[in-house]
Amino acid sequence: MMGSRKSKLNYSPTELTFEQINDISQQTNLTEHEIRCRHSVFLEQYPDGIISRQQLYDSLHEVWPEGHVDKFASHLFDIL
Question: What is the longest distance spanned by two Cα atoms in the chain?
Answer without folding.
Answer: 39
